[in-house]
Specification:
Length: 801
């Protein structure tokens, strides 16, 4: 928002310096982002009179002038043609610096000396364009600085407003804030309208078919207008706030827009069918040409202003080319209305059409100021365009908006702000803002907010108003109390950190994927219709369709990350993620959110190198990662079962991880079809562990067994067992004997083929014996080993080879 100091002073008495006013506005929450002095530093540009003008002897388009500045007669060379001897002009004397850092010096032009320059409005920064030098009123005294003589010295403030302060999108709105802070009353501009002729209802008709989107619509009829240029004061005032002068009618609507902050629109009444205005929604696919000459395709959600046959304006945004003010316009229908902010915002955003009008309507205009702005504009049109205002006003306002009343507690305000203001002091601040107050009981006030403050809805909003008006600088500075305490991480946090460190130590990189996924990701995982992970939590407002539901597994995110990396030729990947998934609970509003550790491996076992063989990863690599995690968490008794694994795993190359009856997770190679669905053409190995179950299965402390100082001895056993017998059953059978001297048992060989019967496999187990008390002899080891052999034969049906 741009305002000028002189314009502000028309509404509020103010003798503050430019710096003081800028600081005051900023402390009120209206941050001053820029300040520009108009006429500052231009005191060397003075009023002068052309005593003589004659043709330049060496140039056809130049003139030699004798110019009197009140003290001296100066020779000036000038190229303008719009002046004669006797005209008073703006003379930039030697040493003057014009806008654009253009310094005036004594010079020779085509052989003739020039001791200054006669200036145009553009050269002085008063206008964007000018056709010649500036011709001044004849009664101005000579030698006086031009900007002082014309009263043009001013200061322009550029204010950065937050979207909630729609009331300050006007000069009056900013002046109202200054008056409230200084404890003064604002002087509103006069808007008395001289009416004559037939009633306005005989000149025009207004029908509002959609009062929801247009709660109020008012209009006046002005006849006999003469379209022409605006007076200089109006042109300069509009240009000072960044608006271009068009003609006297359009300039008046823009002037009132900047003054009151309420947009208006002037229609050529003779171009309106049946002199009728109808406010209703557009039809889908309707094409409308706006004032900028662009064709816009409208939808049923767009509000339009129509005459008896067609659309003539996009409500609250821009008028139509078919009803604009032309040089031949004589009769004007002047509109002042209030439109629903959300509707204006939707249409403006969809069409990419941002105007001064839409900027104000979409933030919330003042419904109560509609007629005041209309009367102000009508009075100016009668004065500047010579129009006659028809008697009366059309005001379609079926459901008047009531003022908002907010209950306010004085003690609560003082507690929040850290001040000690009385109820009367706070009421005085509210009165300065033009609020009305009623004391309900001691310390409790009902505050009625005027309609121009659409941003005030709650008690805390009024607390902010007290802080602003009383002054942020009057709130005492207090130091916060510092407390020293030990912020030790919980066991859960320690284990999370340990788990991440462990995965990184195994060569994995942590990834963070979105908590959302596409519903189709579960189809690509080949999950069955009865799978509980298909019961997803859907988002009400997803950013994109590919992230429409909360994830129920980490696998899709990891596969998509792997696919992107593989496309960039990063072929050896180890990725992991420790994050939550979201599982719907029947009958519950909120989902279950377990923490899951998931990892993905693909490519080679070792990095490429001259001394490394190119071994690809296999099932036992991912199993080794899981075993390392289980060991780190001191999970004992873990078992691996190939029964009932997830459908996204490769059949026969996956298993479930259990601890007793508790399922901790799963691991294995992914199904080739799943890999194809995610665009991956090399084997991928995956594991996932439920972190909460992992913690519940973890032992509080690991038992430390001191090493024996005596040597060990080992015996090997080669047995034939059924093909479906897991090797882990053999180890568990040996451990189940609980022989104290058995230190370990491990499978070291597996054979199928020649000399092994069909449906059988040969497994070799090494059993290590050691005592903590003495060196074991063969005679002591042999009966123990025989006991192990007998147990394998009896319990597993093994045959000794």
């Amino acid at each position: 928002m741009i305002v000028t100091y002189n314009w502000l002073k028309e509404f509020v008495e103010c003798d503050l310096s430019t710096q003081e006013l800028g600081d005051l506005l900023t402390m009120l929450g209206l941050e001053v982002e820029g300040v520009r002095e108009v006429g500052g530093g231009l005191d060397q540009v003075v009023v002068a009179v052309v005593e003589e003008r004659r043709k330049h002897p060496n140039a056809d388009k130049l003139s030699l002038c004798k110019v009197n500045n009140g003290r001296d007669i100066l020779d000036i060379v000038c190229g303008a043609q719009n002046f004669t001897a006797g005209d008073k002009v703006a003379l930039a004397q030697i040493g003057a610096v014009l806008p654009g850092d253009f310094k005036i010096k004594r010079s020779k032009i085509r052989g003739e000396e020039s001791c200054g320059m006669l200036c145009s409005e553009r050269e002085l920064g008063l206008s964007a364009e000018s056709e010649g030098i500036m011709i001044l009123p004849s009664d101005l005294p000579l030698g006086v600085p031009l900007f002082d003589a014309l009263g043009l010295k001013d200061t322009i403030f550029e204010i950065g407003l937050t979207p909630n302060r729609a009331d300050c999108l006007s000069v009056i709105g900013v002046a109202r804030e200054i008056a409230a802070k200084l404890g003064k009353r604002i002087t509103y501009p006069g808007h008395a309208v001289v009416e004559s002729g037939e009633p306005v209802t005989q000149k025009a008709t207004v029908i509002v078919e959609d009062p929801e989107l247009c709660p109020r619509y008012t209009a006046r009829f002005i006849s006999g207008c003469s379209i022409g240029p605006s007076p200089a004061w109006l042109v300069r005032r509009l240009e000072a706030v960044g608006m271009r002068s068009i003609n006297n009618v359009v300039d008046v609507t823009n002037y009132v827009l900047m003054e009151y902050g309420h947009p208006l629109h002037a229609f050529d009444a003779d171009l309106l069918e049946n002199s009728t205005i109808v406010v209703r929604r557009a039809t889908d696919g309707e094409v409308f040409t706006t004032l900028d000459g662009q064709q816009r395709t409208l939808t049923a959600g767009d509000l339009t202003i129509r005459d008896g046959a067609r659309s003539v304006a996009l409500a609250g945004i821009m008028g139509g080319e078919n009803s604009e003010i032309r040089d031949t316009t004589t009769n004007i229908l002047l509109e002042s209305a209030y439109f629903n902010p959300s509707a204006i915002r939707r249409t403006a955003k969809r069409l990419g059409l941002h105007t001064e009008s839409s900027h104000r309507f979409e933030r919330g205009a003042d419904v109560a100021i509609v007629t005041r702005a209309l009367d102000r504009a009508a009075a100016l049109l009668a004065e500047l365009a010579g129009g006659t205002v028809a008697a009366g006003i059309i005001d379609v306002y079926p459901t008047p908006v009531s003022h908002r009343t907010i209950r306010f507690r004085v003690d609560r305000c003082n507690a929040l702000l850290g001040v000690e203001l009385s109820a009367n002091e706070m009421k005085a601040l509210f009165h300065h803002l033009e609020f009305t107050t009623v004391t309900v009981e001691p310390g409790i006030i009902d505050v009625t907010v005027p309609t121009f403050r659409v941003d005030l809805e709650r008690e805390i909003d009024l607390v902010e108003e007290v802080a602003r008006l009383n002054g942020y600088d009057r709130i005492e500075t207090t130091m916060p109390r510092a407390r020293v305490f030990s912020d030790r991480p919980t066991k859960h946090q320690r284990m999370e950190r340990r788990c991440r460190d462990l995965m990184v130590g195994q060569g994995f990189n942590e990834v963070i994927t979105f908590s959302f996924m596409a519903p189709g990701a579960l189809d690509r995982m080949m999950l069955g219709p009865e799978d509980g992970r298909r019961s997803v939590v859907a988002l009400r407002n997803p950013l994109v369709d590919e992230q429409a539901v909360m994830r129920t597994t980490l696998l899709p995110g990891l596969l998509e990350a792997a696919s992107r990396n593989l496309n960039y030729r990063s072929l050896d990947l180890r990725l992991f993620e420790l994050r939550r998934v979201y599982l719907r609970v029947e009958g519950e509003q909120l989902p279950n959110e377990p923490l899951v550790l998931a990892g993905l491996m693909t490519g080679r076992r070792y990095p490429e190198g001259w001394n490394q063989e190119k071994h690809p990863l296999d099932f036992y690599d991912v199993k080794g990662v899981v075993e390392t995690v289980l060991d780190a968490f001191s999970v004992s008794g873990a078992s691996y079962s190939s029964d009932d694994t997830d459908v996204f795993y490769h059949p026969g190359k996956s298993c479930t991880v259990k601890c007793g009856d508790l399922i901790l997770g799963s691991l294995g190679e992914l199904h080739p079809d799943v890999q194809d669905n995610f665009g991956i053409d090399q084997p991928v190995f995956y594991f996932e562990l439920n972190f909460e179950r992992l913690l519940s299965a973890a032992r509080a402390a690991s038992a430390v067994v001191p090493p024996s100082r005596f040597p060990d001895t080992f015996r090997d056993i080669a047995i034939l067992v059924a093909d479906e017998t897991p090797a882990a059953d053999i180890v568990r059978c040996i451990d189940g004997l609980r022989i104290r001297e058995i230190e370990s048992a491990a499978v070291f060989d597996l054979y199928k083929g020649v000399h092994v019967p069909e449906g059988k496999k040969s497994i070799a187990v090494r059993v290590r014996y050691r005592s903590t008390e003495k060196t074991l002899s063969d005679d002591e080891v042999s009966p123990l080993h025989q006991k192990v052999v007998d147990s394998l034969v009896a319990k597993l049906g093994a045959t000794i080879r």
